[in-house]
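Weekly structure sync, notes
Attendees: PL, DS, HV (note-taker this week)

Item 1: L-aspartate dehydrogenase
DS walked through the input record. Source organism listed as Roseicyclus marinus. Sequence as pasted into the shared doc:
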Amino acid sequence: MKLAVIGAGSIGAWVIAALEREGLGPAAVIVRGTAPVGLPAVRSVAALPPGVTHVVDCAGHAGLAAHGPAALEAGIDVITLSLGALADAGLARDLSRAAEAGGARLHLASGAIGALDALRAGAAGGLRSVRYTGRKPPMGWAGSPAEAVLDLSALTAPAIHFEGSARQAALAYPKNANVAAAVALAGLGFDDTQARLVADPGAPGNIHEVEAEGAFGSFRFEIMGAPLPGNPRSSALAAMSVLAEVRRIRARVTT
Ligand SMILES: NC(=O)C1=CN([C@@H]2O[C@H](COP(=O)(O)OP(=O)(O)OC[C@H]3O[C@@H](n4cnc5c(N)ncnc54)[C@H](O)[C@@H]3O)[C@@H](O)[C@H]2O)C=CC1
Ligand SMILES: O=C([O-])CC(=O)C(=O)O
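Item 1 (cont.): predicted structure, written out as tokens:
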């Protein structure tokens, strides 16, 4: 496995350091701005050093859209956290065609949430309803459409600022609703998964909740994610899930 990383923001920096500790230090990083010290920086998949087998996207929807199709078409597997980008049907189609043309795979990291295994299994037997609720402290919604409907700095009680389908959530909140996309992709799909987004001044971290019902029975899952230092929007677990996905791809026995 020879890796490259797209994006060196909060998650990218964590992932690069973790891969180096694992003995899988990336051969290069694809960036828009300045590169982290000590790593060759390039601007495109075409400029990557030869022999890269996997590209790890930590750059958000724009990074996946800009570099995902080129990597897949070149036969390079892509591991991504930008699951919400797949709510754009055109991009989803381009990625899947590129993967087919290049004989490569797009791996979706589980990100800041869990219980996707139970949802996937439940979907195989038929799901009736899946609801996702994302709750973050007000500053976790800074720079999102929540700012148009709420005064985030003055909030004294929890406030719902979005209710709709997972597709609408993923497209409108590219930096905050990848988890809604993960739930949708594992379960009932983008249009039939309900999503609700809440700014909560009492939330001790990024809280993600899934409620699902189907032929399997029902479950409720909740996680309280500690934010990454440097970005209150992103949970540390999201960065950790990238390393977990790399380990899963390398393993002979997979969970
Ligand atoms: N699946 C999940 O559970 C989660 C997914 N995410 C996704 O991960 C993204 C990154 O999160 P953070 O690292 O916290 O954000 P960040 O804002 O700290 O870093 C993003 C980095 O990507 C770079 N970038 C953007 N477009 C690029 C491009 N076309 N090519 C190369 N680099 C590019 C930016 O310059 C920046 O350095 C989020 O925007 C979100 O979409 C974040 C948290 C959880
Ligand atoms: O990191 C999180 O808690 C979730 C997040 O931003 C996303 O789903 O895009």
